Amino acid sequence: MLRFLTAGESHGPALTAIVEGMVAGLPITREYINEQLARRQGGYGRGGRMKIEKDQVQFLSGVRGGRTTGSPVTLQVINKDWANWSEIMAPGPEANLNERVVTRPRPGHADLAGAIKYNHDDVRNVLERSSARETAARVAVGTLARCLLEELGVEILGFVRRIGSVEAMIEENLAMEELQKRAGQSQLLCPDQQAEEAMIKEIDQARKNGDSLGGVFEIRAYGVPVGLGSHVHWDRKLDSRLAGAVMGIQAIKGVEIGLGFGSAAVPGSQVHDEIHHSPDRGFYRSTNRAGGIEGGISNGEPVVVKAAMKPIPTLYKPLLSVDLKTKEPFAASVERSDVCAVPAACVVGEAVVAWELAAAMVEKFGGDSLEELKERVNRWRQLVRQV
């Protein structure tokens, strides 16, 4: 099975991830992961931290000669801002614990609940790990999974559907290549140019107001074979696993599979996908309202996951809060922050969806090497077409 663990703080020395269970022989380069890390740092509306960091991954184990070896893969992303925090964040008794102390929890963050749960009198011990900076490690891990999926004929695509009050108009039958091209040309990963222009104006206005904006992004996975996940237990359902992974991204407050919440407002005849068959394609659907998953199992159609991201809770016009020590009311403390990070969250969404799909592929088909796994997947695809 595939599994991973990340470690590190926002202003610590580095973010580290260990991946276990990756097949041997998978081609992987630092450059490919760095491209995805750069995408995570991009997008109109980002804050000052992005001017400091230029994320680059290092392989510390599990990769030799450009291919995975089958042993645990250790990935590390250095925090350049550590140089400015080395005294405050030092792990030993030399740490300066009296500088940059945070006692004013910010509404919408993990600050207050985390400080109470772990009995901290300095909220920094919470915000350093709860920060979305941690997602750099998840993007690195997810890109490794993405490489595996691409070898197995699965392509991942993400784009932004909404920012604030502006929603993109996207043709439902738009080809993957065209959708990918349009999103790639956009500062906001939005395939609708007119909508993007309106989104930028709304972001600029929010910045002037000291406010922030959220939005909706969509992840599609093309080429996912029939049979990933299972109906037999709740925790083996593919949609359950995908929803949990995407909801685990910082600031995500809602997840949909396919038609999602829209299916509650229309009759069943407009929700369920009719089944067809042809000798060359086998079983297929002419619509994909289920988002490629039925009964917790992938059905061969593209997997479609949407997520709603709340506005960044750190505001330059702070909301009211209460000091953790004095209990006096104050304006919440301000850490360096973005106005809008929906495109960045979309890149993280691609990574976590890639991870869950790769894990499901390994679970179903098994194999210790890429060649073995590929052979099993290809044989399964042939069998499915003959059903």
TrEMBL record:
Task: List residues binding NADP(+).
Answer: 40, 46
Q: Which GO terms describe its cellular component?
A: cytosol
Question: What is the cofactor note?
Answer: Reduced FMN (FMNH(2)).
Q: In which pathway does it act?
A: Metabolic intermediate biosynthesis; chorismate biosynthesis; chorismate from D-erythrose 4-phosphate and phosphoenolpyruvate: step 7/7
Catalysed reaction, written as an equation: 5-O-(1-carboxyvinyl)-3-phosphoshikimate = chorismate + phosphate
Q: What does the function comment of this entry state?
A: This reaction introduces a second double bond into the aromatic ring system.
Biological processes, Gene Ontology terms: amino acid biosynthetic process; aromatic amino acid family biosynthetic process; chorismate biosynthetic process
Which protein family is it in? Belongs to the chorismate synthase family.
In Swiss-Prot or TrEMBL terms, this protein is called Chorismate synthase
UniProt xrefs under PANTHER family = CHORISMATE SYNTHASE
Q: Which Pfam families match?
A: Chorismate_synt
Identify the species of origin.
Answer: Desulforamulus profundi
